[in-house]
């Protein structure tokens, strides 16, 4: 009988010994989100003077500044690339030490299969089980695609990593691992929901009007989607389901309140389906060894054809700005990358294709600059340099604290009218003027 314990011992090395396999010019992949290696990152940073042009891929830095970036502020030795930006990644980009990789999130596993070299993969994982499997934990995402392409696979064991049940593609077997490192066992980063404003709560109330019993819920990143989740937990709705990219604390609230059963889902009935989780310890404890949850790789959770197999999919996401043509920017401030495309367009598409489904893009009507000056988020044209996250042809519901606008099937002048109707009243006259100059306004248009 195979002794996985003996095999484990034979592959167990120090962090420094493990990273000794990395050479100048290599492509090194870290696992995403809370799966980023910690001990291995430190050991690699210590080899700075020995290495040049080591290129690293990661996803949304949650554990604080990577050591490879900290020791190399001029990016002479390590090039840190990122599939999705969080707050720290934005700052690193501003200092010229982090580069963004544009993606459609559902496609990332295919990028590895078709395009990407991986010399060394380094992933933080849960402890090995009795069958020889290391669970990827709360960030399955594209981990399987990374290790499938890697020439060398190194896992860093963290006893605090929740064991997230599948689904599929949630684990790697010891026979596929080259080296094992026992890490420092850091706790999972605690990422509470952002504080909600009165505007967020008003927007959420408009979205709530559209949600029915049996709806299947996807919540995006940010305060407003989480407010919807809290309202759903406190509602009298019945038999909601979950099929989402990111699992957050609000889903635990919905489940514990009895409104989230998944009973009416056409696929993965009763299961809370997700590809990564970010939240507090409450969420991580809920996920650990919980058969109610099912984690899948992102090419399953985010594929519009899979999403649409469930009825009444409600996709709720944030945006930075929208123009009068209906183009949505949810990821940049001008040319500055602040987030990423992620899976927003995946779910916008999948929800619309779902029978009875709806997709909502929400944003507050205004924002203020550092000097307190107020600006409209609904603009004649997107800010110069801004990225179109959702093309105008894909957008269904736009929501602000002033109401809802349905953009599907509307002409350019109808779109302009609908969007100006939900803009802040202080900016409506100027938007009407601009729409006229852009030839997307009719004299008979009515503004409430």
TrEMBL record:
<feature type="binding site">
    <location>
        <position position="343"/>
    </location>
    <ligand>
        <name>CoA</name>
    </ligand>
</feature>
<dbReference type="Pfam" id="PF02550">
    <property type="entry name" value="AcetylCoA_hydro"/>
</dbReference>
<keyword id="KW-0443">Lipid metabolism</keyword>
<dbReference type="Pfam" id="PF13336">
    <property type="entry name" value="AcetylCoA_hyd_C"/>
</dbReference>
<dbReference type="InterPro" id="IPR038460">
    <property type="entry name" value="AcetylCoA_hyd_C_sf"/>
</dbReference>
<comment type="pathway">
    <text>Lipid metabolism; butanoate metabolism.</text>
</comment>
<dbReference type="InterPro" id="IPR037171">
    <property type="entry name" value="NagB/RpiA_transferase-like"/>
</dbReference>
<feature type="binding site">
    <location>
        <begin position="220"/>
        <end position="224"/>
    </location>
    <ligand>
        <name>CoA</name>
    </ligand>
</feature>
<dbReference type="InterPro" id="IPR023990">
    <property type="entry name" value="Butryl-CoA_acetate_CoA_Tfrase"/>
</dbReference>
<dbReference type="GO" id="GO:0019605">
    <property type="term" value="P:butyrate metabolic process"/>
</dbReference>
<dbReference type="InterPro" id="IPR003702">
    <property type="entry name" value="ActCoA_hydro_N"/>
</dbReference>
<dbReference type="GO" id="GO:0016787">
    <property type="term" value="F:hydrolase activity"/>
</dbReference>
<protein>
    <recommendedName>
        <fullName>Probable butyrate:acetyl-CoA coenzyme A-transferase</fullName>
        <ecNumber>2.8.3.-</ecNumber>
    </recommendedName>
</protein>
<comment type="similarity">
    <text>Belongs to the acetyl-CoA hydrolase/transferase family.</text>
</comment>
<feature type="domain" description="Acetyl-CoA hydrolase/transferase C-terminal">
    <location>
        <begin position="279"/>
        <end position="435"/>
    </location>
</feature>
<dbReference type="GO" id="GO:0005737">
    <property type="term" value="C:cytoplasm"/>
</dbReference>
<dbReference type="GO" id="GO:0006083">
    <property type="term" value="P:acetate metabolic process"/>
</dbReference>
<keyword id="KW-0808">Transferase</keyword>
<keyword id="KW-0378">Hydrolase</keyword>
<comment type="function">
    <text>Coenzyme A-transferase that converts butyrate to butyryl-CoA.</text>
</comment>
<keyword id="KW-0963">Cytoplasm</keyword>
<feature type="binding site">
    <location>
        <position position="320"/>
    </location>
    <ligand>
        <name>CoA</name>
    </ligand>
</feature>
<feature type="domain" description="Acetyl-CoA hydrolase/transferase N-terminal">
    <location>
        <begin position="7"/>
        <end position="191"/>
    </location>
</feature>
<dbReference type="InterPro" id="IPR046433">
    <property type="entry name" value="ActCoA_hydro"/>
</dbReference>
<dbReference type="GO" id="GO:0006084">
    <property type="term" value="P:acetyl-CoA metabolic process"/>
</dbReference>
<feature type="active site" description="5-glutamyl coenzyme A thioester intermediate">
    <location>
        <position position="245"/>
    </location>
</feature>
<dbReference type="InterPro" id="IPR026888">
    <property type="entry name" value="AcetylCoA_hyd_C"/>
</dbReference>
<keyword id="KW-0276">Fatty acid metabolism</keyword>
<dbReference type="GO" id="GO:0008775">
    <property type="term" value="F:acetate CoA-transferase activity"/>
</dbReference>
């Amino acid at each position: 009988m195979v002794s996985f314990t003996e095999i484990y011992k034979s592959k167990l090395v120090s962090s420094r010994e493990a990273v000794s396999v990395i050479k100048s010019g290599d492509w090194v992949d870290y696992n995403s989100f809370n799966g980023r290696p910690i001990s291995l990152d430190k050991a690699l940073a210590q080899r700075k003077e020995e290495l040049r042009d080591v290129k690293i891929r990661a996803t949304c830095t949650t554990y604080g500044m990577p050591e490879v970036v900290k020791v190399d502020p001029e990016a002479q030795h390590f090039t840190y690339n990122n599939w999705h930006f969080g707050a720290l990644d934005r700052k690193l980009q501003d200092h010229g030490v982090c580069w963004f990789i544009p993606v459609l999130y559902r496609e990332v596993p295919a990028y590895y299969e078709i395009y990407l070299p991986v010399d060394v993969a380094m992933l933080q994982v849960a402890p090995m089980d009795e069958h020889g499997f290391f669970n990827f934990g709360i960030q399955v995402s594209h981990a399987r695609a990374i290790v499938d392409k890697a020439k060398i696979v190194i896992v860093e064991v963290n006893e605090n990593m929740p064991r997230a049940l599948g689904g599929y593609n949630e684990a790697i077997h010891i026979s596929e691992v080259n080296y094992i490192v026992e890490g420092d066992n850091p706790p999972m980063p605690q990422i509470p929901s952002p504080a909600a404003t009165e505007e967020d709560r008003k927007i959420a109330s408009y979205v709530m009007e559209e949600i029915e019993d049996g709806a299947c819920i996807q919540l995006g990143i940010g305060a407003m989607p989480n407010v919807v989740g809290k309202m759903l937990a406190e509602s009298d709705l019945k038999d909601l389901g979950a099929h989402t990219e990111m699992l957050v604390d609000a889903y635990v609230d919905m489940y514990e309140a009895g409104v989230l059963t998944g009973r009416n889902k056409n696929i993965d009935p009763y299961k809370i389906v997700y590809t990564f989780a970010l939240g507090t310890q409450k969420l991580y404890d809920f996920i650990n060894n919980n058969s109610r949850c099912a984690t899948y790789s992102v090419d399953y959770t985010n594929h519009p054809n899979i999403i649409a197999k469930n009825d009444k999919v409600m996709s709720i996401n944030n945006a930075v700005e929208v123009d009068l043509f209906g183009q949505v920017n949810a990821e940049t401030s001008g040319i500055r990358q602040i987030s990423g495309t992620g899976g927003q367009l995946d779910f916008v598409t999948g929800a619309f294709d779902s029978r009875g489904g709806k997709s909502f893009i929400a944003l507050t009507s205004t924002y203020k600059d550092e000097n307190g000056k107020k600006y409209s988020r609904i603009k004649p044209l997107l800010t110069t340099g801004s990225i179109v996250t959702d093309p105008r042809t894909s957008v269904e519901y736009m929501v602000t604290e002033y109401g809802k606008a349905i953009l599907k099937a509307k002409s350019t002048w109808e779109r302009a009218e609908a969007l100006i109707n939900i803009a802040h009243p202080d900016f409506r006259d100027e938007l009407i003027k601009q729409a006229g100059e852009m030839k997307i306004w009719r004299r008979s248009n009515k503004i409430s």
